[in-house]
Amino acid sequence: MLAGKVIVVTGAGRGLGRAYARAVAEAGAAVVVNDVDGGAAAAVADEIGADGGSAVAHAGPVGPTATADELVATAVAEFGRLDAMVTNAGVLRDRSVVKMTDEDFDVVVETHLRGTFTCARAAIARFREQGGGGRLVLVGSPAGQRASFGQANYSAVKAGIVGMARTLAAETAKHGITVNALVPVALTRMVATIPAFADAVAAVERGEPAPDELRANGVGTAEDVTPLLVYLLSDDAAEVTGQALGAGGDRITVWTHPSVAAEASRPGGWTAEGVAEAFGAELAGRLQPYVPPVAAR
């Protein structure tokens, strides 16, 4: 499905990123495997090569413009072109907001949000130089769609990534470039700190399958996310852009764009008392849930 394509996957040394890199290679793409841990990146590239695929490792922290430029340059130098970029690299610094330091906040913003921006910008520039379009898949998270206790930094950047995907899709459509946000749900170390998932993550790491109940509710392994990713990177998805699309377990999902859920109007404008009255009579029943169901139970 991806034969002849050249794809960069950031943060691909382990977890979801490793699954992404292996899946696109299996689908026929040549892969630049990036990770801040050079040994992990090299191990994944070696795995791909051992399976008959083409891959090269790139060691470097995502965030700086220099890294983004190096990733594009590596793809071109090693494989002659760049067809797609998957911005997966990320870190966690989980703490409730009163305990979160400036450094905790800044490193998450640098890696996730700035890293997505710099890599997307570098890839778009290359796509336009080459002609023929391109694919960007920016990795979001359910934490950016709903509340995630102790992750104010992570929730903020993942929400920003989905917003960035919509805007980049609008800016690049005339060049034949698609930009989508992937919202994965998988039992990896990144979710092991959530009590509801801790035992299941440990089981999956032991090589056991994800429980059927979780799979039916959209939570599975990293490999369950990869078919949607491969599709979005393929020529078949040429008309799919500006979307937030989720995958997990037995489900794929289309997330709504932010939209007005309810409204009230008053000729001549509002007073605070009028707002209070409208909330009681018209709007209170339309307020939106912000906590995911698993956390609300």
Plain-language structure description:
By secondary structure, this protein is α/β, with parallel strands linked by helices. It has two domains: about 5-255, NAD(P)-binding Rossmann-like Domain (Rossmann fold), CATH 3.40.50; about 260-295, no CATH class. The protein has ten helices and eight strands. Strands 3-2-1-4-5-6-7-8 form an eight-stranded mixed β-sheet, sandwiched between helices. α5 links the parallel β5 and β6. α1 (about 15-25) packs across α8, α3 (about 65-80) packs parallel to α4 (about 100-130) and α4 runs parallel beside α5 (about 150-170). The longest helix is centred in the middle third of the chain and has 29 residues, at about 100-130. It is globular and about 70 Å long. Keywords: Oxidoreductase. Belongs to the short-chain dehydrogenases/reductases (SDR) family. Pfam families: adh_short (PF00106). GO terms for molecular function: oxidoreductase activity.
